[in-house]
Each structure stands twice: as structure tokens, then as C-alpha cells.
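Below is how a single chain appears once it has passed through the pipeline. First comes the sequence as given, then the structure the pipeline wrote out for it. We keep one example in the README because the format questions we get most often are answered faster by looking than by reading.
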Amino acid sequence: MIDLHLIGIGTGNPDHLTGEARRAITQADLILVPHKPGKSDLADLRTRIIAEVCDDALIALFDMPVRDDTLPYLTRVDAWHDEIARIWAATMAAHPEAQKIALLVWGDPSLYDSTLRIAARLDPAPRLHVVAGITSIQALTAAHAIPLNTLNAPVTISTGRRLRDHGWPDGCETLVVMLDADCTFQSLDGDGFDIWWGAYLGMPEQILEAGRLSDASVRIIARRAEARAAHGWIMDTYLLRRCA
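Resulting structure:
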């Protein structure tokens, strides 16, 4: 049976790797690295992280399929995951000698990441091992030196799509928004919220903005557009909190 190690690697900073992650990388017979068209920086980051840990790792690059945007959202994501699983299986089959296989996952495999759902599609099923990683949420609050929650209060973690479609969640004081390419915070009352935003968290390219939403939103939108144009990709997240 194949042992498949899903390794949380934080937000691209090699210092985010835990000792467990380093051991899993070192012991892997094969490491799968996805390549996205126009986003070679992400594959390069993974291979650089691997090289810092192990200089003789066997790496197999595979091309990520493109989602069919003509389909409804959940349908196209489901079909996309099916195709990724088929590519994983074909890549692993091309290396039959590899029994310990690893995938490096941004942040942590359990939080707003579909690697575990894709792995569940593999047949025969591998034996799964998950290595926890630093999430973008932890990197964001650390970069801004703020606590995630207020005293004795809960936190809601959601997406830009849900904020757009359903508005501010009922009873929510602190909202962390992930996967928001449209800067959906623009739909909120800018005077009623504070925002802490970050992109390329933990990386040399890291950029941060914070303040009252009415003031900070313009700066965030401009800096986000500039950074995406410069790098060809962007990973960002933000925390919103109702003003006291």
C-alpha cells in the first residue's frame, strides 16, 4: 500500500516547516509538485523548499487542469477534483517503485484546502498521513501582532463568495475571509469595521495593510492589483472586526 503524506508547509517561508514536515520530505520516495500555467513561481517555491531540506529528492512535476467556468461552481470544482485525482494516480503509476509519496500543501491540509478531498478519490486508496502546517490565518495575525479573537468571543472563518452572497454572518464579531479575489469587503459599511489584510504572508514579498475599512480598502485594492500584476499571482487573506 502506498503511503501518501500531505505536508503542510505554511505560506511559502521555509522557516514555517516543522520538524515533522522536514522528516516527511526527507523520507519520501517521490514528491509530487503541481505546476499551474502562468504560475511557475509556486512550483519553484515548492522545489526550493524541498531542496533546502533534501538535495536528492525525486520530484515529479504535473500540470494542473483548468476548471470549466461554464459549469455551476460546485459542479465545476467537483469535476476539477476528479481530474486532479486522475493526474495524481497517473503520475504515481509512472513511478511504481515509490511507496512513500509526498505532496506539499500551502498552509495546512485541513483548512480551506481540497487536497484531502482529492486524495479520497484515489483508487486503490493510499494510507494517508497529514502533517499540520502554519495557516495563512496564523501568519496574518502574527504579521499584524494581533490576537485572532477578542476576549471570550468566537471567530468565523469564511470565503469571499459567502460574504458576497450572504452578507455579514449573524452574530459575528470577527470574520476571517479567505479565497476572495474580488475584494468583497467593499460591500460592507466601511465605517463599521476594522480590517487587517496581508498578501504573500511570511514571504519576502509580504505586504500588509490595516485600519478602518473605509480608509484601508482603497489602499488594499490598489496594492493588491499592483502586486498581482508584478508577480502574476497573489495569495492574500484578511480579518474583519466590528468596531467597538
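The mean pLDDT is 95.

See the next section for the split statistics.
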